[in-house]
Amino acid sequence: MICWPVASMGNEGVLVQCLRDPRAVLSLDPSGWDLLIRQGRRANLLGKLAVLLSDSGLMSLLPASPTAHLLSALKMAERQNAAIHWEVSRISEALRTIGVDIILLKGAAYVLAGLPSSRGRTFSDVDILVRKSEIIDVESALMIHGWQGSHHDEYDQRYYRKWMHEIPPMLHVRRGTTIDVHHGILPETARIQVNTQALLDCPLPVKGFHNIFVLKPADMVLHSAAHLFHEGELDNGLRDLADLDTMLRHFGVEQSFWFGLVPRARELGLLRPLYYALVFSMRIFNTPCPQSVVAELKAISPSWVFRWLMNACYTRALRPNHASTHTGGTWLARKALYIRSHWIKMPVRLLVWHLLHKAIKTPAKENQFNTQNKKLDAQ
Amino acid sequence: MPEAKFFLQSTDLVFRVFEDEDLAVVYDPRNGSTHLFSIVAHEIYQLLASSPASLQELKISLFQRFSDDDQEMISTAVDTAFVQLQCADLIDAVAN
Amino acid sequence: MKVSELSKHALFAILQRGELCIDMFPFVVRVRSDISELAEDIGRIYQDFPVLDSNCFTDFHVEVSYERGVRRWFRPLARFYFDGRPSFIPLPVDQAFPMLEWGINWCVAAHSHSFLIVHAAVIERQGVAVVMPAPPGSGKSTLCAALIGRGWRLLSDELALYDFETKQLYGMARPVSLKNQSIPIIQAHTPAAEITSPVPDTTKGTVALLRPPSESVQQVKIPARPAWIILPHYQVDADALLEPLSKGKAFMLIAEQSFNYNVHGREGFEAVGDLVDSCECFEFTYSRLSDAERVFDDLLARRING
């Protein structure tokens, strides 16, 4: 039996403390602020922190230098919000000709639905969900309007198309933006079979567009939970959990949301991710959750061994991936979750093949460094 | 056959003209793009903002407006500005 | 306390601990390094800069350290880190100081959206400033280095920080980056100038860094009011020629040379418009630095005399 040290609340870091209670910033000294800004930047939550501080009426009380970084992150987020609107309008235009409706997922959905989780948030690409039968038409229409496929490696193509739940990301030649086209919210090869049809059947329309939709509240929360608790790379884990917390608070104002949540999770096959989402959101962000739902959670919880392991892993991995929050076991925790995510995405024989292939290919990180170096050279 | 009429894709463009110059910079709030146009493009924009018009109608308006200037020169300037606006996705033909 | 007040030994020790906090107004940069030659370069070229207590708030945590592994002993490499994350490919360790400078430029340009940041040199005299936007090959760093050797104040040779509210410019007054032929030219032009030993074979050619004038560093908190936008063109054997540049074109030039124009949206558009409106705009072709000094002095005299 592996023994994990029990993570104490104190190790969660100043960022989580301040997200939970923005007034905590008032007692920070300069080195505390230094750490807060760095953790916030690493976790891609600086913009969100700025929004919380602004909403709490605290911005004018803060020291000038950290405030500049908060405002900088906010500006970037606002700019990206505006850019997402335009991007979605171009996508809508491109797909109008083939009469296909699409559902926006994740960040783009938060923006177009005007949700609080869009505020202060940055985005890297647009994710859309379409029916599997319409994927070829969608891909063609996008290509006609300037998007090009990426990942030309034959293996990568097969990885995405056959095994995962999306086609390889497409890049727009002029705007440089990326679109991820999904036909499911979890890979086809996943051990959990999600009822995608039920998801596609009742989305909500988006104002101003005929062919753009978003998931209804419970589905949006469940998708976010499924994504987070199946994801291997958890650099944005805390941010995604913060999105979940914001959504639960926003949608949770309506009692009907809570009544329908567990039954809908059951219908979609997403009880386990919902369990983790609620448990960790309550634990890390004190998300208010009705007693009735907490009781239902007990009924759907995994065995105590899993609970203990998952707790040990996620409590560490959901902290900002910054040296200041690393404790004994952090590296192992992140590695374990990375492996788990692949394990639940694929059957074992495919997993071994996939990991072998990745190990042989040139690491992508060097390309990232080269790109950054090129930018610097351009100065 | 009646000439095609054109309309503005956005009436929210922000123009900035500099004194004594024949160039204008334009900001498109829809997508954050910035363009450099001739000031004739500004004139065309203002005309189309009130109603769609054909290329010929636009030229005639400007001939009347700048009656002192050479019509050939105005016509060329309008053609150029028109292309600039089209390339920037700012005007489109009215569907029949 | 200034960097110059630290002994060589103390400076290197503080650097190794990652506790060297240099005040590069309007930012504070914390530096870590285990490279002794880099410590010497910092000690020399940053000597006039204030050092702050390590408990201060720092805007950017940077590190330039030896790459681990076998290479440490045979043609060693150094890598730049931003807040503990490696960035960029490793380079030969003799490029450590240029790498630190490029790295700090990147940190500022990528994260400081409270300013409009333009890739341009800014120099100031008698309260008014020249902005020289920097497309490649313009020779702006050489021109900048020459003019600050003749009494102009250095704000920056790379990053013009435009304040939206005050409509004035800041610059950090950091070392000026010289390339290839500029190095001997400036050495001849300003014999008293302190320049690092040239480092060959970088991606930009041979590179050296010029120590900023003490007065420029002392006055770094004083912003400058922009009065001229001048696009320089170095052309062999050319006579000096100052020609008006249309404001529309100057606008597009500034916007294109800006690192974060797009982030600012409408506000950026209006700010660049205001900047261009408030300046006389020129293109300047030259080959002799003495011509450049004369032309810039004439512009200043015309301005002062109304």
What does this structure look like?
The complex is a heterotrimer of chains A (379), B (96) and C (306). By secondary structure, chain A is an alpha/beta fold. Chain A has one domain (9-372): Beta Polymerase, domain 2. Chain A is built from 17 helices and 7 strands. In chain A, a hairpin with a 6-residue loop joins strand 6 and strand 7. In chain A, 42% of the residues are buried. The model of chain A is unreliable at 1-10 and 361-379 (pLDDT under 50). Chain B has one domain (7-90). Chain B has a 3-stranded antiparallel β-sheet. Chain B has a 3-stranded antiparallel β-sheet with strand order 2-3-4. Chain B starts with a strand and ends with a strand. In chain B, 23% of the residues are buried. With 306 residues, chain C is an alpha+beta fold. The relative contact order of chain C is 0.13. Chain C has helices spanning 8-16, 36-45, 96-111, 140-148, 182-189, 214-218, 247-256, 261-277, 289-304; strands at 20-24, 27-33, 51-52, 60-66, 77-82, 85-92, 116-125, 128-133, 153-156, 159-162, 169-170, 176-179, 199-202, 205-210, 225-234, 241-244, 280-286. Helices cover 33% and strands 31% of the residues of chain C. In chain C, a hairpin with a 6-residue loop joins strand 10 and strand 11.
Jot down its keywords.
heterotrimer; B: 96 residues; alpha+beta; 3-stranded antiparallel sheet; 42% helix; C: 306 residues; 2 domains; 8-stranded mixed sheet; 6-stranded mixed sheet; 17 strands; 33% helix; 31% strand; globular
Average pLDDT number of chain B: 88
Strand content of chain A: 5-15%
SSE arrangement of chain A, N to C: HHHHEHEHEHEEHEEHHHHHHHHH
The CATH architecture assignment of chain A turns out to be 2-Layer Sandwich
Largest sheet: spatial strand order of chain B: 5-1-6
Strand order in the sheet with the most strands of chain A: 3-4-5-2-1-7-6
Would you identify the regions of chain A where 5 or more consecutive residues have pLDDT less than 50? 1-10, 361-379
Fraction in helix of chain B: 40-55%
Element-level helix/strand string of chain B: EEEEHEHHE
The share of residues in extended strands of chain B comes to: 25-35%
**CATH class category of chain A:** Alpha Beta
Helix segment count of chain A? 17
**SS elements, strand count of chain A:** 7
Low-confidence stretches of chain B: none
**Helix/strand-derived class of chain B?**
alpha+beta
| Overall domain count of chain B | 1
**Helix share bin of chain A:** 55-70%
